[in-house]
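User: Predict the structure for this protein chain, please.
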Amino acid sequence: MAAETVNSNGELDGGAESAIDPAFALHRGGKMSVRATVPVRDADDLSLAYTPGVAKVCSAIAEQPELVHDYTWKSQVVAVVTDGTAVLGLGDIGPRASLPVMEGKAILFKQFGGVDAVPIALDCTDVDQIVETVVRLAPSFGGVNLEDISAPRCFEIERRLQESLDIPVFHDDQHGTAVVTLAALRNAARLRGIALGELRAVISGAGAAGVAIARILVEAGIGDVAVCDRKGIVSADRTDLTDVKRELAGFTNKSGLSGSLESAMDGADVFIGVSGGAVPEEAVARMAKDAFVFAMANPTPEIHPDVARKYASVVATGRSDYPNQINNVLAFPGIFAGALQVRASRITEGMKLAAAEALAAVVADDLSADRVIPSPFDERVAPAVTSAVAAAARAEGVARR
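Assistant: Here is the predicted structure, written as structure tokens:
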């Protein structure tokens, strides 16, 4: 088929083969809108919803700021914030081109967690400017979901925002991926009758997702985990590490491995791919018997599932057309719903661990090699994660109701 461009009507310009692309048809006009929750049918309704009735509510909030949670939508809405520098598989495409993805994220919040969300694409990439902008926007929101912001800036932005704000700040590319990965790994281990503490994992990719996965696996009690970047295993003896990777080296790789990704995979029980690089079959073949392969690069996994199945007892990907999809939508709607439910001031490591355990438990009675994680359309997922996160927030002292 000849090369095609898209005209102003969202149609493909390709001669006789032109057709309306269904993706453009679905996105025309955007994927979301604002809907009122109260009627404005007559003058009485207008006087209550707006002036003069609204003045009473404003005055009450001015006197008791916490009332904002009861009399506005603040505790039910999340800001989905990006700078467009690391948009899913597309890279640095800028804030305007990122908007369809942010709208998509917002409707997933609503569909799968009952949480309202507003996409906010910022026309700046400077860390200070992003932090200052989000802090100034924060009074309107109950939480901030950072999305598609490139590493390593994403780590500092999340840290500084959480230090500055008293509402949850959550970088989904990091923590959503980590929660779902841990849930799937817990079930894979249960299926094989082995404890997490007996497993040695290798992570390909030391960016946002790789760092967060390593951290949550260590928190969950993994036996050992080595993280690899383009230059090999992240280890304390390397002199080329960034601050983030230096910290990473401090809590991973207890075995003191050095060298390449392929050497780290020798005898490893778990491979987790969040890098997009190709892994040779010979390296997979040298993993431990009945290993687990979670090759999550999308659309091209680091290890093709057909290859992984030759050697691994459980295979997961980031794709929806293979079993065991590691999909963030299993985590972030319920995590935020639980945090907002109790007006949590932050999302703690304990809340993430609780989310992973609850997610794993959804299919714990129906485990198989092709079912170590539930479908995003399993209606049990969001309520289970929401309840577990809310309970963990109360237990950890960050709940305010």
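The longest strand covers residues 77-82.
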